[in-house]
Amino acid sequence: MISAAPVGRTITVNFLLGGPAGTIVETDTITPGTALAFTKTGFDTIQLEVTAGGVTPNITGELCVTPRYPIST
User: Fold this and answer.
1) How far apart are CA 40 and CA 32, in angstroms?
2) Which pLDDT score, from 0 to 100, does residue 66 have?
């Protein structure tokens, strides 16, 4: 959940297949005061992108991933 962020800032959550340089297979957007719950398959990397607007003030919040199935390595 994003608990605090400057007005107009969002976080894009990219689900990729093939690592950080892989192909984006799905995208969701989180805005301040919201949370994202998802059930997705077919990805191996989660990437968070913050919209432009400088580094301060920082966006604060929490990231928690709870898999329902065993994760293979």
Assistant:
1) 22
2) 79
